[in-house]
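look at this:
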Amino acid sequence: MSVSMIRTGLQSCINDLDTARARAVALLEDLDGSDAVEVPRQGRWTKAPLSQLWAKVCHLPGIVALFAETAAHPGEAVTFSAVTAHSGLSSMQQRNEHARMSRVAAEIFGKKRWPIENWQGPAGSTGHSEMLYRMDPAIAEWWKDLTH
C-alpha cells in the first residue's frame, strides 16, 4: 500500500470522526434543551454547530463579509451586492466562497446547511434578481460572541 493511499484513508477517517462529533454535539444539545433557532430551509441551529462551521470558514473573506453584514442587520434581508461590497471580492469569487461554505457544511453536518437564511430575491428594475440573506438575531449574538 502506498503512502498516498494510507494518507487518503487516514484523512477520510478524520473527516468521518468530525462529522460524527458534530452530529453527537447537536443531539446532546437537543437532549439538554439548549436554545435553538430554526432557520428556514436550513434546519435547526445552536451555538455549538455554528462554532464548528465558523472554525472551518473564518479564513474566507467573503464568508466573513456574509456573516458580518447579516449580523449587523439581524432579522433583516441583506443583498448579495451589499455582502460583495463589504468583502471587496468580485461577484464570482464571492459566489465561490459561498459554495465553499456549503461544501464545508456538508462535510461537517452531512448536508449543505447554513446558519443564514438565503433565497433568490425578486427581479428589480434591471430585470435581474439577486440573492438575499437573513440572520436570526440569536445567531447574530452567538456569532458576535465567537468573534469577539
